[in-house]
C-alpha cells in the first residue's frame, strides 16, 4: 500500500511507516523480539547479503519494529531514510564516523550537550579525528576553521544551557558553497524545527528525550536528508566515494543509486552498525514509537507551559535571570523566531539571587519536579548542571558552554500549569534565605 504523503506532524506521528500487519491485522506496531529472520531460500539469502534486495537478516542490522520508527522519524523530519541506534551518543558518533577517517577533522559549535563535548574534545582524538570548536554567534567562523580535510560541520538547534538557537540556514548555505554538510542535533526542538528544510544535510536526535517522552528508553536516530551531493565533492568524502574493501569494493554513492539518495545512511547501516554494533532494541523502538505518536500534542503543551513558567519566573523577586528564547532580544530572538515554529521549547535556565547555595536549596525543596539528569520527559525536571551533567568539563569549558555555578536547568513538563507554578513558587520560597527575602521586599 502506498501511503499518502503527509506533511502535518500530528498525522505523520500516528501513521507514517505503518498501516497494519499483513498477516494478523495488528494495528499497533508489533514488537519483533527476534535476533534473526528465516530466509526464503539460498537465492533470497544471497540477494539480501548482496544488497540486491532489502530485507531483514539479523536485528543488529535491521528489525521490522525499529524500521517503523526509522520511517516515521524520517517522515517527520522530511528526510529520505534514517537509522535508529541504541543511544543519542551512538547517533552522534556514527554521524561523524560515517564521514571521517584518521587525519580528518570536523568543525563544531561550542554550544553542545556535555556528552557530545566529551566525545568531540577527547574520545574522537583516539581515532585521529580532530574537532575544531567555533562560536556560532558568527556563521563565518565555520568557514574560517575549514580546510580540505574537514568532513562536516556540527551543531545543535536549541542547545542548553544558553538556549540560543543556531543559525541553521546561514551556516548550511556557507557549507554548501564549499561542499561541507551540516549535521544538526535536533533533540531539543522536534516538531518545532525541521533543520533539513533550512539546508542541513543530516539530522540526529536523542530519542531518549522528547520523542520517547516518557523516560523509558535510551535511543538515538540519524536522518539522511537526501539533499547533499556527496559525489560532486568526491575528494572530501572518501568513505562514500572510494571502493569499500569491506564490501567487495562497493562505492556507496554508486552502489545504492537505484534506491535513492541514501548513500550516507546505507553506509552507516551496513558498515558502522555491522562493525561497531549499537542497534536500538526492538522493545525500545516500540516504546519510543508510543511516545512519538503523541509528540506533536505534547510539544504544544510543553511549550505553552514553558511560556507561562518563563513569565512567572522573570517577575519573581528571588530570581536573578531567566534564560528562555521567549525572553531574549536582538539576534538571539530573531533566530528563535526564524527557526522555532509553534513555541520556544520547554528547556529553561534560571539563576537564583542566592547563587549556588540557593540553587541547591531550591532543587532540594522541589516536591513535584524530579531531580534527574534528563530532559524532555512528560514530567517536569530540574538539575544543577555545574555539579552534574557538566561536571566533567573544567571551569573554562563550563563557562564556554554557558554553565555558570548558579545555573539551574528546568525541563518543563505537561502537568497542569497551576501545579507547576505552585511547586516552583514553594521551592523558591524555601530556597530564599531570610536576608534575601527581606531584600526583595
Ligand atoms: C541527551 C542528549 C544527547 C545524548 O543522547 P543519549 O540518548 O543520552 O545518548 C545528545 N544530544 C542532546 C542535545 C541531548 O540532550
Would you write up a description of this structure?
The mean pLDDT is about 95. The chain is globular and about 75 Å long. It is built from 17 helices and 12 strands. Helix 7 links the parallel strand 4 and strand 5. The protein has helices spanning about 10-15, 40-50, 65-75, 90-95, 115-125, 140-145, 170-180, 240, 250-255, 265-275, 280-295, 295-315, 330-340, 355-365, 395-400, 415-430, 435-440, and strands spanning about 80-85, 105-110, 130-135, 150-155, 180-185, 200-205, 220-225, 320-325, 345-350, 370, 380-385, 405-410. The strands form 2 sheets. Strands 1-7-6-5-4-2-3 form a 7-stranded mixed sheet, sandwiched between helices. The protein has a 5-stranded mixed sheet with strand order 8-9-12-11-10. The chain has 2 domains: about 10-20 and about 35-285, Aspartate Aminotransferase, domain 2 (3-Layer(aba) Sandwich); about 295-440, Alpha-Beta Complex (Aspartate Aminotransferase, domain 1), CATH 3.90.1150.10. With about 450 residues, the chain is α/β, with parallel strands linked by helices. Pyridoxal-5'-phosphate (PLP) binds near residues 220 and 375. InterPro entries: Cys/Met-Metab_PyrdxlP-dep_enz, OAc-hSer/O-AcSer_sulfhydrylase, PyrdxlP-dep_Trfase, PyrdxlP-dep_Trfase_major, PyrdxlP-dep_Trfase_small. Keywords: Pyridoxal phosphate, Transferase. Its EC number is 2.5.1.49.
Amino acid at each position: 500500500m502506498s501511503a499518502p504523503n503527509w506533511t502535518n506532524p500530528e498525522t505523520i506521528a500516528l501513521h507514517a511507516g505503518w498501516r497494519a500487519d499483513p498477516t494478523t491485522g495488528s494495528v499497533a506496531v508489533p514488537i519483533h523480539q527476534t535476533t534473526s529472520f528465516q530466509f526464503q531460500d539460498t537465492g533470497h539469502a544471497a540477494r539480501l547479503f548482496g544488497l540486491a534486495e532489502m530485507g531483514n537478516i539479523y536485528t543488529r542490522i535491521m528489525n521490522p519494529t525499529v524500521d517503523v520508527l526509522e520511517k516515521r522519524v524520517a517522515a517527520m523530519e522530511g528526510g529520505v531514510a534514517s537509522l535508529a541506534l541504541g543511544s543519542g551518543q551512538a547517533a552522534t558518533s556514527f554521524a561523524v564516523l560515517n564521514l571521517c577517517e584518521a587525519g580528518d577533522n570536523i568543525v563544531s559549535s561550542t554550544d553542545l550537550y556535555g556528552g557530545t563535548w566529551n566525545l568531540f574534545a577527547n574520545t574522537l582524538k583516539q581515532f585521529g579525528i580532530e574537532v575544531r570548536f567555533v562560536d556560532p554567534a558568527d556563521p563565518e567562523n565555520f568557514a574560517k576553521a575549514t580546510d580540505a580535510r574537514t568532513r562536516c560541520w556540527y551543531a545543535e538547534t536549541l542547545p542548553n544551557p544558553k538556549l540560543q538557537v543556531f543559525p541553521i540556514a546561514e551556516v548550511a548555505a556557507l557549507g554548501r558553497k564549499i561542499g561541507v554538510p551540516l549535521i544538526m542535533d535536533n533533540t531539543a526542538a522536534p516538531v518545532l524545527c525541521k533543520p533539513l528544510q533550512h539546508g542541513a544535510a543530516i539530522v540526529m536526535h536523542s530519542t531518549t528525550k522528547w520523542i520517547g517522552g516518557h523516560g523509558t528508553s535510551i535511543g538515538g536516530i540519524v536522518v539522511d536528508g537526501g539533499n547533499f551531493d556527496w559525489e560532486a565533492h568526491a575528494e572530501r568524502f572518501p568513505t562514500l566515494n572510494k571502493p569499500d574493501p569491506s564490501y567487495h569494493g562497493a562505492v556507496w554513492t554508486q552502489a545504492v543509486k537505484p534506491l535513492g539518495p541514501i548513500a550516507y545512511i546505507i553506509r552507516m547501516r551496513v558498515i558502522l552498525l555491522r562493525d561497531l554494533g549499537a542497534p536500538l532494541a526492538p522493545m525500545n523502538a516500540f516504546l519510543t514509537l508510543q511516545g512519538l505518536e503523541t509528540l506533536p500534542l505534547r510539544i504544544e503543551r510543553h511549550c505553552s507551559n514553558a511560556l507561562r513558567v518563563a513569565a512567572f519566573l522573570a517577575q519573581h523577586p528571588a530570581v536573578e535571570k531567566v534564560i528562555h528564547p521567549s525572553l531574549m532580544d536582538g539576534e538571539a530572538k530573531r533566530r528563535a523566531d526564524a527557526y522555532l515554529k509553534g513555541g520556544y521549547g520547554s528547556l529553561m535556565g534560571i539563576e537564583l539571587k542566592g547563587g549556588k547555595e540557593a540553587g541547591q536549596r531550591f532543587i532540594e525543596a522541589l516536591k513535584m519536579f524530579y531531580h534527574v539528569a534528563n530532559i524532555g520527559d512528560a514530567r517536569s525536571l530540574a538539575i544543577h548542571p555545574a555539579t552534574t551533567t557538566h561536571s566533567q568539563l573544567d571551569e573554562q569549558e563550563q563557562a564556554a558552554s554557558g554553565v555558570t555555578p548558579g545555573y539551574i536547568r528546568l525541563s518543563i513538563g505537561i502537568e497542569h500549569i497551576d501545579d507547576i507554578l505552585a511547586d516552583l513558587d514553594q521551592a523558591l520560597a524555601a530556597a530564599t534565605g531570610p536576608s534575601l527575602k527581606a531584600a526583595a521586599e
